[in-house]
Design a protein that fits this description.
The complex is a heterodimer of chains A (about 260) and B (about 290). With about 260 residues, chain A is mainly α. In chain A, about 50% of the residues lie in helices and about 10% in strands. Chain A has 2 domains: about 1-110, no CATH class; about 130-260, no CATH class. The radius of gyration of chain B is 18 Å and the shape is globular. Chains A and B meet through helix 1 and helix 2 of A and helix 3, helix 4, strand 5, strand 6 and helix 5 of B. Chain A: It comes from Azospirillum lipoferum.
Amino acid sequence: MLRDLQAAMRRELLSAGTGLPPGVVGDAIPAPVRFAIHANNVVGSLVAVLEAAFPMTTRLMGRPAFRTEALRFVRRHPPRVPQLLAYGDRFPDHLDRKAAARPTVVSPAAGDLARFEWAWNTAYFAADAPVLNVAAVRALPTERYPTLRLALHPSAHLLTCAYPALELWDALQRGESVAPAARPQKILVVRPLLEVQSVMLGQGELTLLMALSAGADLAHAAMAASETEAGFDLQVTFLTHLQLGTFTAFTDPLAEAPL
Amino acid sequence: MLPSTNAATVPSVSIPPRAGIGLRHRHVADFLTDPPDVAWIEVHSETYLAAGGPRLRALETIRRDYPLSCHGVGLSLGSADGIDPRHLDRLATLYDRLQPDLVSDHLAWSTAGGTFLNDLLPLPYTDEALEIVRRNVERVQEALKRPILVENPSRYLDFAQSTIPEAEFLAELVRRTGCGLLVDVNNIHVSAHNTGFDPLGYLAAIPAGAVGEIHVAGHAVHDTGCGTLLIDDHGSAVADPVWTLLAQALRRTGPRPVLVEWDTRVPELPVLLDEAATADRLLARIDKEARDAA
């Protein structure tokens, strides 16, 4: 049955062994040599996909170490769908697990850096959406601000990292060598138009954006932010993100209320 | 113009019977700033399965100036598990957006047991496989509401289970589903070398009227230590025997859109355009031969 043959081929293509599915014909060139062309295509192309998705993580770890871990990941977690732009979301967690087990082989910063790169990729391919402009908000009477609910742009990602992933990424992009030390960093990645933007966030700022994305209104989100950061400045933060393009739309319950 | 006897069966009438090139990321900026003189373009559908963003936006812009062929590498037409309905939905959404002039995929499989293996894997050519591919092609054609072209794969191995020669398998698939064929002459050359058949006999067994597109590409020579295998890596210029095979194919099919594929070690755009110009000269020469003979 074809189903059985394909199941057997899938097993052999992803294993590191030298097994053969039934029926492969050999001649002067033996069957295992022929089948190996496909085995190499499968794992080789998928490792290359990960390398392209995580270029700075590759640079941090060094190409041989990265490819070793990518190969392990490919064999364990091959893609489930033919949409390789979405393949690699679990790779940062894989690097975390490896770093915990063998910190001398896999840098403990690799997982966070990969998480940042994945957020960047996801933002790059996210749905397009209009950006909420400053003028639209300014046109509202100020007494309506507290009840505003703001939707984050569909490309927006909030990251909390144990290592300064954005700094590492910048340094690696410039070709600098890095010696990562643990230092928490909170990051927003967003693509309001065509360019991906990434900015470091303060604790209050992160809390505000998380609360808004969870559906809180501006007053409650600001209250939560003030609780996590003394002296949190709502006005400055709000304007910064309006200008950056962090929000896509708002609903104003008062405006929508029946007259 | 396509010969009128073939027009009804060839689903590629909106792609001109001239040379096209694959649109590759490194050439996108060239296309946006100074659109090159090439008759049509082809993209790998799965590369654009994104919700939005700059890549899709650029293709939509470029597409306005060129006939577009969307070449799939993920439908897995040979899967015993059937076609993944979610993947089909994603492609249908993409095609609604891009309105391609031509849609194609391969006589191969890449998904089994919920795993996508990212390679065009070989099928044994049996009655069972033919029935599975027929079902899958029909499913795709119904969902996309259009005939698709099915491409002959590059083969590195044969199965003892196979009972039907590949060209006959394709001919029967055409007969049963009404699909068209994408004949990759580099794949014929590569497979003929690797698995030992006569490329001309293969061409003769292909239903010429169903051929809607032809591919040419470069291949690599891999010394296994016990003989050479040709690897279809799309990483170099088209080899001379493949140009010769293209001429022979065109003599059989009449003028058809010819795509120059170059996907790895992608050169500067002018190199690719030169290859397309070579294909165009060959198309013109074969066309002239045919008209002189008539």
